Amino acid sequence: MKTLLMTTAAALLASSALAQSITVGAANISDYLDPGRDHSNVGSQFYYNSFDTLIDRDHSKLEPEWVPALATEWRLVDDTTMELKLREGVKFHNGEDMTADDVVFSLNRMYQATFAPMSCAPRTVWQTLPRR
Questions:
Q1: Dihedral sign from CA coordinates of 130, 74, 95, 107
Q2: What is the average pLDDT value for the chain, to the nearest integer?
Q3: Neighbours of 47 (CB within 10 A)
Q4: Is the pTM of this model over 0.90?
Q5: DSSP string, the chain
Q6: HSE-CB of 26 using CA atoms within 13 angstroms
């Protein structure tokens, strides 16, 4: 069993009296707690319980069926352009609204990665994006 301190939240809060911890039981834990850096099975178990995705999968079905998540609609404009309509009213843990700039930052971080294992991902990620 590992205790994960919410250090990010604690650092952002002005008062350490508001800092909290969470205890998580897991057989394994990833070397990273960063969904942009780790796509392992072990990491995915944590990420799907901690972060929202732009486009989700209906996990009740055997064949992949893509469903809205943070993006309520999406379409491929051409081979290198995807248009997303974002869900309104989404807030980060600090209360700030999620914007298109935040999505662009996250996607650029993935596609322009220079750290392993994501430095090779841009070659394959685009082909796996759900078509709609």
A1: positive
A2: 77
A3: 19
A4: no
A5: -EEEE-HHHHHHSS-GGG--EEEE--S---S---TTT---HHHHHHHHHH---SEEE-TTSSS--EEESSEEEEEEEETTEEEEEEPTT-B-TTSPBP-HHHHHHHHHHHHT--STTGGGTHHHHHHHSPP-
A6: 16
User: How distant is the alpha carbon of residue 107 from its chain centre?
Assistant: 10
Assigned token pair, 43: 């990491």
Residue 93 identity: H
**pLDDT per position as a tens digit, 49-98:** 888 889 998 989 999 899 999 999 999 898 778 899 999 999 998 999 99
Q: Phi, psi (5° rounding) for residue 82?
A: -120, 135
The Cα–Cα gap between 5 and 23 comes to 8
Rounded Cα gap, residues 36 and 51, in angstroms: 11
Q: Quickly tell me which residue has 């990420």 as its tokens.
A: 47
- Token pair 């994006």 is found at 129
- Rg of the Cα atoms in the chain: 17
